[in-house]
Amino acid sequence: METENEMEMTEPASGMALAEAKEQTQETTLEVAKVIPQPLVESVVQNPKGSILTSRDGTHHWAGHLDIAFVGPIDAVPYFETAVDDWGGRAGWGAERDEMSDGSPQLVITGPGGSVYLLSMALDRRSAHIATLSPSADIQPGEVRGPNY
To answer: Which of 20, 106, 121, 143 is disulfide-compatible with 16, CB 3.0–4.6 A?
Structure first.
């Protein structure tokens, strides 16, 4: 007989509808992009489509991305440090500054439902990329076939 804890570990956690998870993630990604002050930003391009990923625990997440071009090279570290305080101070959220293997700074923001927002600077410091993972999403059979995601 399974205990309540064993059931929680073997059954996927229920999330929100896929369309809602995608929309919420894209809106939050635009907010994360504002970590860099707008006068330093030349353009922000969010890809309207992404991928559906399935975690080991059976939960589904929409994965997307956004690119930011700057008006010139910038030092993002002070902005990332401010973001760690801001995002990390929100209920249900966490944030930390990290570095990629090449030494470029990264900002990792985690949120409700297993959501993740990873802001990574390019080596030349003239652009950045945000990779996202939505909160856990419920996917209906056949829902991910087609142009919507």
So the answer is: 20
Contact 40, 71 (CB under 8 A): yes
pLDDT band at 11 (very low <50, low <70, confident <90, very high): very low
Question: What's the chain's Rg over C-alpha atoms?
Answer: 17
Instruction: Give the mean pLDDT of 82-107.
Output: 95
DSSP symbol at 13: P
Strand partners, 62: 52
> pLDDT tens digits for 12-67?
445 788 889 999 999 999 999 999 999 999 999 999 999 888 888 888 899 999 99
- List, as one string, the DSSP characters of 95-127: EEEEE-TTS-EEEEEE-GGG-EEEEEE-TTSSE
Q: Bridge-partner residues for 132, per DSSP?
A: 64, 117
Q: Helix, strand, or coil here: 24? A: helix
Distance CA 75, CA 121 (A): 9
Residue of 62, 61, 64 lying closest to 32 (CA atoms): 64
CA distance to 28, 43, 45, 49, 113, per residue, from 64 (Å): 12, 17, 12, 7, 16
